[in-house]
Write a structure and sequence with these properties.
By secondary structure, the chain is of the alpha+beta class. The chain has twelve helices and seven strands. The chain is elongated.
């Protein structure tokens, strides 16, 4: 099919192509106009201190702003936050989920939290409660986690200290590592003294130094085998102490972020305004009209296919005996004779020929009409007597 054929079909089915989109757009417009008036408001969240900065910040790097916006949007529509907002405002959770929307302002860390509802008095409370609950959900949880880490590290330090105390009571020695080191230093000094006394001939002093050296060596032999266990306990206490110090630093950073995410300082709620019905009508009716146009095109295509299928079916006509037979196909060809006068021929000959031909055509047409009116079998219909017409052939 060519473009002309498609245009011809469109003109013939124009009432469908125009009626269906108009009806769809009218129905959508009716739904919009009959719906209750909607009111909307926007809360602006601007917390640059929460994004970027030190590595200890929760959101750092090149994608920090996008991550913060995505996390805030997920938190604002999370079941926990929605339940808390519903308890604060009395609005159903399903209505909150349908009316809330989060949008990033450009590529910055600022975002807009909007809420649309039919009850104007609930818009501002919902925005305030949602922004506060979402920020608390994001950053207060970090404080709770850091506090738990500090508590766990403190418990580890306490347990390691108690293990050291128990070991000292069991072995009846306090701080054996320091005692061992002090004994080593004392032995070195005694050996030096003994050598000096022997050099000057002080045998009595040299013997006393030797006895002290022997006592110190016995003490080293007693402490030495137990020292590895004690040093392991010391290592555990040192690791627990370092973990507690790190946890305390993280707790301080989390508390600083929580103070920076205070809703009273980082959020502001704009005025509540009525939603424009014209804008809502355009936003709803145009897509519906487009869908109606596609439906109309599909309907026209189906109707054309059905019409062509019916046109291809053969038409049966009853014969002389009553049996159906296909309708005969007539092919009548028109032969046109050009009568050209020869150079030098008289006008009378040309006029006589035209008169003769006209009389012959008139007689042949009259005979064919009579035979068509009454056929050989007493019925009406075209017969092969049309062959009497000049220039016509019947098959």
């Amino acid at each position: 099919m060519e473009i002309v054929d498609y245009l011809r079909i469109a003109r013939r089915r124009l009432w469908i192509l125009l009626g269906v989109p108009v009806l769809a757009a009218g129905a959508a417009a009716g739904v919009v106009l009959l719906a209750p008036q909607q009111y909307t408001g926007t809360a602006y969240v601007a917390a640059p201190a929460l994004v970027g900065g030190a590595a200890a910040q929760q959101y750092t790097g090149t994608q920090a702003a996008a991550q913060f916006v995505a996390a805030f949007g997920a938190a604002a529509t999370s079941p926990r936050v929605l339940d808390e907002v519903a308890a604060d405002t009395g609005v159903r959770v399903s209505r909150l989920r349908d009316g809330l929307a989060v949008r990033q302002v450009g590529a910055s860390s600022q975002l807009e939290l909007s809420y649309t509802a039919s009850a104007r008095g609930t818009v501002r409370p919902v925005l305030e409660a949602t922004s506060g609950r979402a920020l608390a959900f994001l950053f207060s949880s970090q404080v709770d986690i850091a506090t738990e880490q500090v508590s766990a590290a403190s418990d580890d330090v306490t347990a390691a200290t108690a293990a050291i105390t128990a070991w000292e009571k069991e072995n009846k020695v306090s701080q054996p590592d320091k005692l061992y080191q002090a004994t080593l230093n004392e032995l070195a000094s005694l050996r030096q003294q003994r050598l000096s006394m022997q050099a000057v001939g002080n045998s009595r002093g040299a013997n006393a130094a030797a006895e002290a050296i022997e006592a110190g060596q016995r003490q080293l032999d007693t402490i030495g085998p137990k020292l590895p266990d004690y040093q392991a306990l010391l290592a555990q206490r040192d690791a627990a102490t370092a973990a507690m110090s790190q946890a305390r630093q993280e707790l301080q950073a989390a508390r600083a972020q929580t103070r920076a995410a205070d809703p009273a300082s980082v959020t502001s709620v704009g005025q509540v305004t009525a939603v424009s019905r014209l804008r809502e009508l355009v936003a709803t009716a145009l897509p519906v009209a487009g869908a109606g146009l596609l439906l109309a095109v599909a309907l026209v295509a189906i109707l054309e296919l059905l019409a062509r299928g019916r046109a291809r079916e053969p038409v049966a006509r009853p014969g002389p005996s009553g049996d159906p037979r296909p309708e005969p196909t007539e092919t009548i060809g028109y032969a046109h004779r050009d009568a050209t006068a020869q150079h030098g021929a008289g006008g009378e000959r040309g006029s006589g020929e035209r008169s003769s031909v006209g009389q012959h055509n008139s007689v042949g047409q009259h005979s064919a009409v009579q035979h068509e009116a009454v056929g050989p079998n007493g019925g009406s219909g075209r017969r092969s007597d049309l062959a009497g017409l000049p220039g016509r052939s019947v098959t």
